[in-house]
Structures are given as structure tokens and as C-alpha cells.
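User: Fold this; C-alpha cells only.

Assistant: Input:
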Amino acid sequence: MEREAIASPSPASGDNLSQAIEDKIRLDLRDLRRAITACRRCSRGGNGIPGCGEPGADLFLLAGRPGPGAAPDNPWGEWRDDFHRKVIEEWGWSFGGVYFSTALRCPLEDVTPAALRRCAGYLAEELFAIGPRLVVVSGKLAAVTLRVALGDEVPGKPRSGDICGLFSTRFLFELDVARIKREKEAAEIFWNVLRKAEELVPLTKRN
């Protein structure tokens, strides 16, 4: 009696697998955005501002709180305009992708350790979904929330310009982006530290 040939499933091509992974990440990010927008973990519930950008972005820009004029499609608000004007128009950088986000998802005036803990889970999910090569951590609030989200391997009191690595991502610690319009000296330090990104990842290339 002849044996029936059993057809083995054909392996998925690399392109199909990559697309499937990207589609899954996009769905995860969509669900995360919805959860943040509808979040009611604090008194400002229902007004959370999610991060914005593409899955697989090389550069993840993390501020402490939403910027002036922040919206779901632009959590940095006016700060994003300052960033684009400096690094793209003046420096001539081009990017494989940039993701903008904040540690706190609501513009709270009084920030407590409990508020940081409530938002830290969202930050951890976002970082793992995006998988950036470099995270620029802007300010103390961002640094503290990052430590709560990822654990003690993140420095407890990093200085501007410090770098650490965790998993396949490097973290560059910065001054608070909120200071660059108020303080000339702080702005100079901020932009000088940001230039280190060129040395850390191959995401910035001159046009």
C-alpha cells in the first residue's frame, strides 16, 4: 500500500514574517494608545497623551511630561518644532525614524512618586514595542520614570551626557527639554549632548 504524501507547510518568507511582526506591533501600539487616551488612573483621567511615531524607530525621544500644545499626534507639542528646526533644518540630519513620547501622560502640576508609578507601565510597553536603538532621556522626571519602568540597571542619578545600555538599546541622558527656551546655557548644553547621538547609532546622516 502506497503511503500518502503529507505536504509539509511551506516556511514563511522573511518578507512575510517581517510584515507580520510589524503588523502585530502596530496593533499593540494602537491598543496601547487607546489605553493611554482612556486612562483613568489619576484625577485627570481620560486625557492621557500617548507617544507618536513609527514602529522600529531608531531614535526614541523621551520628555518628562507633555509639552506646550501637546496632542495625541504630537506629545512634545512646541518642543518637537524646536527639535525639527535645529537638527533637520540647521544640522541637516535625516532619520530612519523618530518616536516622541513622555514619561507622564498628563500635564500634572504636582508630580508624586505614585503618579510616576502609574505611568511607568505604559512607558515600558512602549519601549519594548518600538525597540529603539537610542533613547534620549530628557530631564529628571523622565529618568526617574524610566528607572521605575525598567529597573535598577537604569542609573539612579544620571548626569546630562551619561550613557547606559540595557537589552539592545542605549540611553543618553539629557537636560530637561522644557528648559531650552528659558535658559540659554541649558539650551547650549542640551544641543551639545544631543550631538552624541551621531556617535552612538547610525541614524543620523548628513544630507
